[in-house]
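LOG
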Amino acid sequence: MNKVLYIILSLLLFSLTVISCGDSEDSSSSASSSGTTSTTTTTATITIDAPPKPACQTDGSTSRNDNLIVTPTLSRHAEQSGGRLLYVDKSALSQYQTDNYLLFDLLESKHTGSRFKGTCFKRKYPCDAVDLSNNALSLGNQFTQELRFKMDNIDNKVKSAQLFGSVNGLAPRISITDSGAGIEYGFPGAASKVDTPDSVNFDKWHHLATTFDGTNYRLYLDGEEINNSTLYQGETPLSTEKVDMIGDHSFVGKIDEVRVWNVVRTGEQIKTNMDKSLTGNESGLVAYYPMDVNNNWEIIDKSSNGNHAQIINAEILPRFFDNSSCTNGPDGSTTCPFPTIRSALDEVKSG
């Protein structure tokens, strides 16, 4: 029988309750076969409870029952009533499609195995990045750069970070500034800085793109042009400077669908294709990283150049989505439950 896990989150007290429903043979994984409750509190003040076994979905059932929620005890009622209730059901895996993304987090690790070694500067930042290698591209006086991203800027630890560019910051780049309140783009010289629209919060997925035609350097947010700079009119990025890095050891969040073109894409082309996957053989596409990996744990460049990228400390994780009943993906409801605890915790952390 599939296990159904219910996560009750108390946002005010930062506590998490996981309720596991299973057959009697599953009781070995419970805190106690008699149904007693055991509580473990971590240093991050996350509390995991194993409450008395509730009524569970029966074998062969095709629906999820709202009545599977255990009525909270009086001692926990106050903190639960003010929180969020998220459902996790492993059997829901089959109802979703997946799309990989790149995760940059604050977990510490030894920064080794890359030519970027030593560039973390011993700061209290992550050391996550992606190395596009010495075979990375140098851009000319016409190009387009694109990516999708989402910030997980816990407690505003990261004030500014490069999303896509180079290890030395001299190649064409896209960055966020002021904890996401601003966007910066350009190459050596006076960078163009733009305030993030008040209606936009980067703790949700957004698409950024820049285009340069030798005169106009445009910035697009979710397919809409929000800035056109002529600071670089008549200039060309240095041929010795390669776009060789995704992230910059400072960014905390998620990145997906990184694309580089040696042509100027129109606003209509950007908007039409920003939420679509590409084949890799589109005209002018010279690098394409949809975050799929090969057997060497490299991010595959699906363009004709095949310049696969090395992952440095970062993770590749699946994003779940459904084009029918759950168009926005899992939301923790009984109709659209999270298929894994990790995906539910990711939502909790973001929200």
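LOG (cont.) second protein
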Amino acid sequence: MNLGAIWKTDWFIGSMLTILCLFTLQHETSPLSYLENSIYDTSTQHQASTMNDAIAIINIHQTSLIQNQLTAKQALVFIINALTPANTRFVAITDLTIDSKGTSISSDDTKLTHAIQHAGNIVLPIHFDLSTDNTLVINTISPQLKSLALQHAAPQPVHLDNPVHAVHIHTDTQHMIQAAAGIGHTNIITDADGITRHASLTMLYGQAYFPSLPLILAANALNISRSDIRINMDNSI
């Protein structure tokens, strides 16, 4: 028997496919998707990325807030006021649900809104609840919110799953939106195995397309205005 040719036999191929199918069923994904994800995961683990020196990340640590007797929003006001005279191109805030208690606007909210408006270069986060079956839900949105959406989007072919549809927007920060230079959604979408491998660059809500925070930051870094962004679903941005 030619052992070198075993891998070519029907029983060997059938056994391997059976093992592959059983293994991937445990991960609730198709064999091809599992292989694709495995290759992607392996390649990304071996890719080294370096931080751009022009980018600064400021983390508001709970311990430092306690030591300085500040709320997170008070710390944001201090940081924004310090960065404004330094001619920072733009500042992105990734979480504004901190310190939120109820729906009333606190004095911290008012001061933060004034700091955002005065700076003129602040990009705020927004967060959506997503449709479980990715179907379009018609929602009424405020003119202020709609003015910060992307203005140019090609019609969506009916067979596409893009874009991701949102059914509700969290309103914790809507009183600050009008003062912002831009907004971007912070929704993270995971695959069936719980790992995040892709990002939704746009979100459809109330028949308006909203950019992700990474997309609007990349556009700002390339000096591309929101009005110049063009969307071709499942093709290009």
